[in-house]
Amino acid sequence: MYKSKAELNSVSMHLQQNLATYKLAGAIKKSADVMRMMNNLIKLPQLNQTMMVMAREMEKAGLIEEMIDDMMDNDDEVEDEANEEVDKVMDELALDVLDKTPNAPANVRAGAAQEAEPEVAEEEDPEMRKMQERFDSLKGGM
């Protein structure tokens, strides 16, 4: 009896193993079919060529973006310099207008003159005069 039961269990396990092998073979066959279809759809030489073209275009786009960024940075510097020059000219024009205006208060004219000529105020500094004299004497000795 035990022997018969063991043989039946052995046959049952063999049948289960055969069924699992059959299912696995079917899944592998389907996978192979899908791979074959994908291989037919994708042409490797064309894909390689497309990828190379795309890489070149992306490199060009990166270079163009970098050049644009550099130009924008340079534009900011040029714009700042231009704004400084415009401010200087506007200060000079304001000073001229205030000088020509007889009713302008004297303290406003004096304030505009000080704003327009900050470099002159620095040159009148006693230390700057001493340094300038020393520099002139050194220049004269050469």
Protein model, in words:
- The chain is rod-shaped, with a radius of gyration of 45 Å.
- The chain has 142 residues and is mostly helical.
- The longest helix has 57 residues.
- It is 92% helix and 0% strand.
- α2 packs antiparallel against α3.
Number of helices: 5
Number of strands: 0
The share of residues in helices is over 70%
Distance between the termini: 128 Å
Major beta sheet, specifics? none
Shape: rod-shaped
- Write the element-wise H/E pattern from the N-terminal end onward: HHHHH
Average pLDDT figure: 81
Low-confidence stretches: none
C-alpha-based Rg, rounded: 45 Å
Which secondary-structure class do the elements indicate?
mainly alpha
Strand content: under 5%
Task: Draw up the topology in text.
Elements: H1 2-41, H2 44-100, H3 106-116, H4 118-123, H5 126-141
Helix pairs in contact: 2-3
List keywords for this structure.
about 140 residues; 5 helices; rod-shaped; mainly alpha; about 90% helix
Describe this structure in a few short sentences.
Helix content is 92%, strand content 0%.
